[in-house]
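Review session, final week

We close the course with one last complete record, chosen because it touches almost every idea we covered. It is YolD-like protein, a protein from Allofournierella massiliensis with 140 residues. Go through it on your own first, then we will talk.
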Amino acid sequence: MTNPYEDILYLPHHVSPTRPRMSMEDRAAQFSPFAALVGYDAAIDETARQTEAQIVLTEDRKAELDRVMQQLLRQLDQRPAVQLRYFVPDERKAGGAYVTAVKQIRTFEPTARLLFFTDGTQISLDRIVELEPANIDAGI
């Protein structure tokens, strides 16, 4: 029995007169795996990312922070430097992260309970868990 494709089986490979020959790497890329679920890896990474819960301060700790804040407000015209640790809520999921920084106070808005700093940031007093006067050379 003869092969039905015997007449073309041993012909030379066709070479196009107008198109260049594809490299082996490009040819192999046609058969490489693809991301069927676009964004799935990013969603898995986001789910695995850890956040911290915001600390609930005791009344004693709140009173201590208030005492330090009152002391700093008396020096507000000198733009005192402070070292503080505060909570930054996460934009995508519950929780957030605690940031420690040395900043220089520009002003305070008592009704909104916001501290404004010379670097342009503003932080709510409700997010601050540690606050103490700092040496201006310590990191500003």
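Two points worth writing down before the exam:
The first helix runs from residue 6 to 9.
Residues 6-48 form one domain.
Good luck, everyone.
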